[in-house]
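Notes on consecutive records. When two proteins share a document, each keeps its own sequence and its own token line. Never mix them. Below: protein one.
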Amino acid sequence: MYNVYYYFNGKRKVYGMKKKFVGKSLAIVLALFVIATSVITAFADTDHQYSIDELKLSVKLPTYMDVVTRNLSTNDEVYKRHSKSVLNFQEYGIYLQAFSQDGKQILTITMDQDENSKTVDNYNTLDDSQLASIKEKFSQAENCQSCSMDTYNDIIYFDSIINTPSDGNTLYVTKADTLVNGMYIHYTLQSNDGEIDEADKEFMTTVLKNVRYELESKSIFDRDIMTFIWIIGTVLVVIIISIIIYNIIRKKKRQSRLDIIDDRMYRNDRKDRQQAENARKNRNTATGAERPDAFFDGVDGIASSEDIDEIEKALINEAHQQVSEYADKYSTQDAYDETEEYGKEKAEYSEFLGEDRNSVRERRKKRVSDRKNSRRGRKF
């Protein structure tokens, strides 16, 4: 016996498990596994898939049906069993016929083509009004009892129920028509047990749900002219919009660069003007070492501006002093008699003053010339 412990409300509990019980449990699990495997296998074998390469489709049909295709040998047992019921496949465009074992149902798959089917290619390419028009044509077909439009696996089908009189009897048929890969494909279920009932409709629906198509990706040149024009127009519109967007972005970037350049030019111009204004103020107000030409004071024997100004002031003061002396000298009674001599001396003073001013100008010119020839004024 195996002891298994567990805790309940803080207390240790123990219960036993016998080996016999374990063996029974294992046997039950294995039995369930075998049953499940058998069921899955049984369901898997209820259908068989058939491929029709000419139609680029495959369909699953119940295994209880005998299926005849174009590839089936005439010596096959299935073909021999239904040889009297098998129609001429080539003549009627038949690709598959399936017979129920009780003979109550016959499923037939046929195909035909024309220029319209090659142009349209697929019912999914049509709009609602075009599909409604096609449905109306099926509804107006001879002996059609009803018609509906259904979609299975993204494929559109027109389902019709047709009762056709034949040799004093009535042939009961439910039919599903579709257009895929430029081919009209027809699924016809014939009931040999009276009118089409819900079981027949359900069987047809199951068949259509189990059909798979290998859809073709058609070249652009195989489509109709309007589709081609629409695609070309769409491409051109996209290209034009792309060009417009590119030009707008390019203009914005160029304008941004121009704005940056303009701002720099404005700042540099403003800076230059400010420097010029500051230099002008310094020329008018600076004294001593802050004068613009103070840098050249005492360089290579160049006289400073302040020295020259002092010399000019001294000369002017000396001239005024001499004038005052002349005025004192000729303020007596005989001043009138000496007027002519005073005039001559005044003229001599004017000439002296003029020569002195000329000498000042010459010194200034020499100062400028010396600055240009000085070592500090040279460019290396």
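Protein two starts on the next line and is unrelated to protein one.
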Amino acid sequence: MIKVRPLIIFVVVVLFFIIVSFFVEVDYKISGYGKIYPYRELLIISQGGFFSSKLVNYLTGFVTNELVYRPERGDIVQFSMKDFNNGKCRICKGDTIGILVSSYINQRIKEIKGEIRCLEAEIDYLKSPQKRALVELAKEKLNYAKKDAEHKKKVFERMIELYKKDLIAQEEFDVIRNDKDLAEINVRIAEKELENVSTGEKPEHIKMITEQINKNKMMLNELIKQRELLFIKSPFSGIVLPSYSIDTLCTVRDVQKFIIVAPIDMKESFDIVEGVKVEAKVVGERMRKIYGKVSRLSEDITVLNGKQKRLVFIEVNGGDVGLRKGMIAKCHIHLGRRKLIERLIGIF
């Protein structure tokens, strides 16, 4: 009887604890370590003869914008970067970071501008009153040449009969024949002159030149847009950092927001929902706390140290609070209060 009593007491205590656990609530939080990343980064890269800029969003995990420039054969490209003091500089949204100067694009712009000026001058000449006066003068000259040639042809035909009858000398006949031939040559010359000065006078020719001007202007606008794209501007306010990589020219980092990426046990991760509050401390800085909220959870499962994990993306409140990319922070994800029995079942 004495031996049974401790067992009964133990059972009663356990039952009492179980009953109480249905009513008692405790704070529920999930803890883990995470790595700090900036919200966004702009990478300016030169690799294999290509120049590119990539905008990486660490919250979504996507490259949200990428510009690639491939120089044409024979093109000489120079990258001119803004002078940043001490290798670090704050930059505002829309500020120019650097410029890619393409000799090919600049040369094509100059050539097309020259072609447009020539075509516009040609239209002005074709439409000018001086042009019309030259055409009228050429027409009068052609009419005169035709009349003169007709007259000398008749004279020559009469002289043939006289020459056959030996009424005129050979020298005189040759002079008359030469005058007739010269008059016919003058007609052909006058026709060519009229053709030269009247070429393009027709409205369809002016229309063709106008269409060519419009086409060149479209090409010019496209080249100017391409040149403007080579002005690399910051899509956000942040800091410019030097790069010690062979292919990365520089990095622009958004310090207005930071992201903590923390791997959490897969089983516990299903209790986490977007928007829950998070409290974190940077390892090595016990006195400072940072706060944020869960922004999203990854769909993929990652295996770390033989355990299945899901990545939780935590958006840190506030701007530049002295955080740096690569820092490690211990995070506490607060999930509110839960009944003690639920936590016990979840543990076991």
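For the record: The chain has a mean pLDDT of 79.
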